[in-house]
Each structure stands twice: as structure tokens, then as C-alpha cells.
Design brief:
The complex is a heterodimer of chains A (194) and B (293). Chain A is an alpha/beta fold and 194 residues long. Chain A has six helices and twelve strands. A seven-stranded mixed β-sheet of chain A has the order 2-1-3-4-12-11-10. Chain A has a three-stranded mixed β-sheet with strand order 5-6-9, with no helix packed on it. In chain A, strands 7-8 form a two-stranded antiparallel ribbon. In chain A, strand 11 and strand 12 form a beta hairpin. The longest helix of chain A is centred in the C-terminal third of the chain and has 14 residues. Chain A is globular, with a radius of gyration of 15 Å. Chain B has 293 residues and is an alpha/beta fold. Chain B contains 13 helices and nine strands. Chain B has an eight-stranded parallel β-sheet. The two termini of chain B are 36 Å apart. Classes of the chains: A alpha/beta (194), B alpha/beta (293). The interface between A and B is large, with 38 and 39 residues. Strand 7 of chain A pairs antiparallel with strand 1 of chain B, so a sheet runs across the interface.
């Protein structure tokens, strides 16, 4: 099983480090050929506008769509969540893939000075509190019918799932806690029927 | 809930990796930068090449320009303060700038000390010519280091020198025994602990970007291949003939820095770059990189 991490821009190396800690084979994806080798894909944090332009310029959008259409699991964190959303309410002209029926607002918590971390309980990840790291993070403003909200924080949905698409508004790759990645690996294994 | 932690400060730098931070002097340029795929913009009154030409004392930009850029672009906004000028930094924090660059490009304000960056919730980036400078800035609370290079020249030689020096100094540290390491830490005027962190990870403890003289896609590729994790471009873009096209080309060259076919393609027919200054012909009094250590 190979987990691809979209490596056009952003903190893809932080995701790679965590997956390697879990003994998972990873591939930094920068071309359509790279993506073909992968069983699951993480779209990392970074700047969604930058990634969007590079996806266009290097003709990666059809490959990512094909990947999704095959039902292969995709996990978008922060900028990655923005890219896979249905619509960016705060920037309606900005492209998004529409892989998951959510609308999002970019930088909805404010600027960097408002970035924060906080411990919360996430029962489906176990008893130990989970440290959330939000950096200039987006918020989910609308949740479609087919989307399951897995975790809420102060009334906002922060982890959501629709079939094989998982999205989070925070950065699970910014701490040493591997539980969110383990959850995504489980999703990928189930899709492969391993 | 906690804010302003080192994890959050370094975290934003992590998000900027594999990207280009572009110097801009007005909203129009900031929008071009955003459109080209820049991950962040750095707001200044003048780009470094024009600061050289203008002479005199160079200071933080007018809050009016900074606020206008913050309003008009959705990517993170950085701005520069003079070295040691914590009052300028307080203004930028008040404005809500996303990153503060304590920069040798501006005229230094304190002959002895840099800003105590731990006092701020806003993250700081600082320049460095060697490992000692980098680690002193990290010890003062910097969350991101960039090479100093020689700003406003369009000549890459000094950025290359600084990046290679930092890498070779890290490699050298690994060859030393405990007592030699203590001596080295003393000489660099940093704690033993920070030196141990460097040895353990083989890197400086925060992200390391390149700056100072980058003017072409090939320059960006060169710095990334030497170990930079992102690239700052100052005068190189808006002092060239076709800024949007050049900006896009540099963005592409950072993502595909190790693919010569892409860097070659984006370098083709770019039009004239900034004229620049050959570093070897410069006089020491005109260096910006030596303004602090």
C-alpha cells in the first residue's frame, strides 16, 4: 500500500514523516504518473491558491479526478480541505474539486495571530486527548446531507467524511500524534479490502 | 486554547515550504504575486534594489500600504522591520501581519541587540550568513531563517555562499566530541542544547529558506538543490521586463526544482531580467549582509 502526498507546495514532508513513523510507504506526488502508483492521497496544508495554479499548469486535475472516481481514499487537511470542498464560500471564484459536499470559508479564524492549539477529546481516536493545531485555518460553513461530521469544536465541524473522502480543518501532521493518519490508513486498507 | 506558540510560528513556515515569497510595494504588485502562485508577499516601501539607489535611512513601510495589501490578498502578508526596532515590530503585530522580517535590508536600529522575539505572538524570520547567526536568531525566538545573500543585487553568489556554509558547519559539528561541541557553542554564543538539536536532526531547528539575489528560475532551482526549503524573491521579479511571467516561472521552478525539463521550459523566452550588480565589483560599505551578526 502506497500513500501519496500531493507535493506541489506546503508541508507535505511533515505528513511523510508521520506516515514513515507508522511504517507506511509514501510517495511525494508531483505528476500524474506518480499518482497512478498510489492507493490513497493526502492533500496537505499550504496555500490553496498556489496548489490550484500548479495543479492547472501541470495538468494534474484530470488525474486527481480520476483517482477520486475510482473510489480511492483522499484526505485533505487545511488547504487540502479547501481544495476538495464543493464550494469556497469566501472566495466563490476560486476552484475546488467538489469531492465532498461541504462549503468552506478560508482563513475563517483570522490571521496568523489568531492561530491556536487546543486539546480536545475525540472518542473515536481513543481516550487520550487530541491536540488540535489550527493555522490560518478554514471553517466548514455548510455540510451536505451525505456528509458525516466526526468531530466538532466550539460548534464547528472540524473532521468530516463522505464515503472515501476525509477532510479536516486543522493540521494532524503538526504534532507527534499519529492517530488521524492511522484512521486514514485504515480507510485506505478497507478500500483495498486488505 | 493557546496562541503564539513556537509550534504555531514554525507551523506557518512549514505551510510556506516549497513556495515563493515575493517582495511587493503596492496592491497591484501584491495581486500579481498572488495570481502567479506566490505563497506569501513581503510588503516594503521600496524593493532592495531601489533602497540601494535611494540611499538614506530605510525604515518599516507605511502601515497604509501594509493594510491595503492585507485587505486585497488572501495569502499571508509579511513586512520588514529594522534590526532591533521592537517598536516597529509592535506596530506590525498590531496590524496583524502574519510574519515579521527583522531585516538587514533596512537600516539597523540597535547596534547591539536583535529584537527579543519571544515577546511577540507574531512569528519572525531573520537572515543569517552562517550557522552561528542562524542559531543566535533561533535562540532569540526566530521561527524561520533565510540566507542573507546580498539583497538587491540580482547576484546569487552570496546566497549560495551562506547556504553552503551553514550546511558545511552542520556537517562539521557532527565530527566533534562533547567538549569540542561545548567550545563551539561558546564561540557561536549559543546554548549547548540548541547545538545538540542541530546534531540530532542534521538541520537548523526551524525551516531554512533562501533569500538575497535570486533573480531567475534557475537561481531558485539552484538554492532548492542546495537545501533551501523555499525562496524569497526581492527585486528580481518587479525589476524585470515581464513580472507576472517571471513570477510564475520562479514558482514553477521551486516546485519542480529537480526537474531540468521544467526549469528549462519556464526559463525560455522570459525577457530581460533585472540588470543587477556584480557582487565582486561592490565596495564593503555598500554591503547589507554585514549590518548585523
Amino acid at each position: 500500500m502506497i500513500i501519496g502526498i500531493l507535493g506541489l507546495q506546503g508541508d507535505f514532508s511533515a505528513h511523510k514523516k508521520i506516515l514513515e513513523k507508522l511504517g507506511t510507504e509514501t510517495l511525494i506526488v508531483r505528476t500524474a504518473e506518480d499518482l497512478e502508483k498510489c492507493d490513497g492521497l493526502i492533500i496537505p496544508g499550504g496555500e490553496s491558491t498556489t496548489m490550484n495554479r500548479l495543479l492547472d499548469r501541470y495538468k494534474l486535475k484530470p488525474a486527481v479526478r480520476k483517482f477520486h472516481k475510482k473510489g480511492k481514499p483522499i484526505f485533505g487537511t487545511c488547504a487540502g480541505m479547501i481544495l476538495i470542498s464543493k464550494k469556497i464560500e469566501s472566495h466563490p471564484k476560486q476552484f475546488s474539486f467538489n469531492f465532498i459536499d461541504i462549503e468552506v470559508n478560508r482563513n475563517a479564524y483570522g490571521r496568523q495571530i489568531d492561530s491556536f492549539e487546543e486539546d480536545i477529546d475525540i472518542p473515536f481516536l481513543g481516550k487520550k486527548p487530541y491536540r488540535l493545531v489550527f493555522i490560518r485555518a478554514p471553517k466548514i460553513s455548510k455540510l451536505g446531507k451525505g456528509v458525516e461530521s466526526l468531530v466538532k469544536h466550539n460548534g464547528d465541524h472540524i473532521i468530516v467524511r463522505q464515503d472515501n473522502v476525509l477532510a479536516g480543518s486543522f493540521h494532524p501532521e503538526m504534532t507527534a500524534d499519529t492517530r488521524m493518519h492511522e484512521y486514514f490508513l485504515k480507510m485506505t486498507k478497507e478500500s483495498l479490502k486488505i | 486554547m493557546v496562541k503564539g506558540t513556537l509550534r504555531l510560528k514554525v507551523g506557518l513556515a512549514e505551510m510556506l515550504k516549497g513556495g515563493v515569497i515575493m517582495d511587493v510595494v503596492n496592491v497591484k504588485q501584491a495581486k500579481i504575486a498572488e495570481k502567479s502562485g506566490a505563497v506569501s508577499v513581503m510588503v516594503l516601501e521600496r524593493v532592495p534594489a531601489d533602497i540601494r539607489k535611494a540611499g538614506g535611512v530605510s525604515r518599516m513601510a507605511d502601515p497604509k500600504i501594509i493594510k491595503a495589501v492585507m485587505k486585497e490578498v488572501s495569502i499571508p502578508v509579511m513586512a520588514k522591520v529594522r534590526i532591533g526596532h521592537f517598536a516597529e515590530a509592535q506596530i506590525l503585530e498590531h496590524l496583524g501581519v502574519d510574519y515579521i522580517d527583522e531585516s538587514e535590508v533596512l537600516t539597523p536600529a540597535d547596534p547591539d541587540d536583535h529584537i527579543d522575539k519571544y515577546k511577540f505572538k507574531t512569528p519572525f524570520v531573520c537572515g543569517a550568513r552562517n550557522l552561528g547567526e542562524a542559531l543566535r536568531r533561533v535562540s532569540e525566538g526566530a521561527a524561520l531563517i533565510r540566507t542573507k545573500g546580498e539583497p538587491g543585487t540580482g547576484d546569487i553568489i552570496e546566497a549560495v555562499r551562506h547556504m553552503k556554509l551553514i550546511n558545511s558547519q552542520i556537517a562539521y559539528l557532527k565530527t566533534l566530541n562533547a567538549s569540542q561541541l561545548r567550545k563551539e557553542a561558546d564561540e557561536m554564543r549559543v546554548s549547548n542544547d540548541v547545538v545538540k538539536m542541530v546534531i540530532k536532526s542534521g538541520k537548523i531547528p526551524v525551516p531554512n529558506f533562501a533569500a538575497g539575489g535570486i533573480a531567475t528560475p534557475a537561481d531558485a532551482s539552484l538554492m532548492m538543490q542546495l537545501g533551501a526549503e523555499s525562496v524569497f524573491v526581492g527585486s528580481g521579479i518587479f525589476k524585470s521586463l515581464n513580472p507576472l511571467r517571471r513570477a510564475r516561472a520562479v514558482v514553477d521552478a521551486v516546485t519542480y526544482f529537480d526537474k531540468a525539463d521544467v526549469v528549462s521550459k519556464v526559463s525560455t523566452g522570459l525577457g530581460e531580467g533585472m540588470k543587477g550588480i556584480d557582487f565582486a565589483t561592490m565596495e564593503q560599505k555598500d554591503f547589507m549582509q554585514t549590518r548585523s551578526s
